[in-house]
Known about the structure:
Order of helices and strands of chain A: EHEEEEHEEEHE
Number of helices of chain A: 3
Strand content of chain A: 35-45%
Oligomer: homodimer
Shape of chain A: globular
Radius of gyration of chain A: 15 Å
Structural class of chain A: alpha+beta
Distance between the termini of chain A: 5 Å
Amino acid sequence: MHRSRLCSILLDCSAETMEAGVHFWQQALGVTARGADEPTSPYVTLGGGAGGLQFYLQRVHDTSRIHLDIETDNVEAEVQRLEKLGARRKGPIQTWWVMEDPCGHLFCIVPAHSDAFATQAQIWED
Amino acid sequence: MHRSRLCSILLDCSAETMEAGVHFWQQALGVTARGADEPTSPYVTLGGGAGGLQFYLQRVHDTSRIHLDIETDNVEAEVQRLEKLGARRKGPIQTWWVMEDPCGHLFCIVPAHSDAFATQAQIWED
Lengths: 126, 126
């Protein structure tokens, strides 16, 4: 048995547009960015989240896109569950896996880290 | 004065992968899709939404991507506000505008339609 939930929406911003992206989305949504002054982190959090979903901008060395994160208490079991449903592994990064859905959207399976995990995660029988 | 809020996350699925996308995301998130049996609509709703955010799959005649929708009670005023912040118009569709942020992410400005609009929308002085 393991658990998982959709936890985050990430706007991946090419490195040269990240600063403009943070500036734009703060004002577009009327929210405050946290982490924009930490040059060693690629993540900037926008606002306080809604319904347990966090909203981030992430500096990437790639083209800009949007991806989703699913958090879980068992990364390997969740990756295998989603492979059986038609997703495929793209590559491991640190403690998580980048995957691709049947339509070509990228998403990540990451270790559980949110306050909402305990109450909102789905239970899957392995 | 006008109002706006981030209302939706849309997984745009190429026409040939839409059915597989609906099948995958229903089971990946453990939610029920609504609208999958309406062939004239390009939209399928996933689950009941979280924190006022709706989650859709949309059949598109383009490559798969993810985009955000902002709803507003004055589309033209909201488009002009976001242009001043650095976004640009890509093209009009029916009652809404497709726009591009400074990083190259597409998003749409759509007429207000959600129950959460009245209580969650931000107020902007024009």
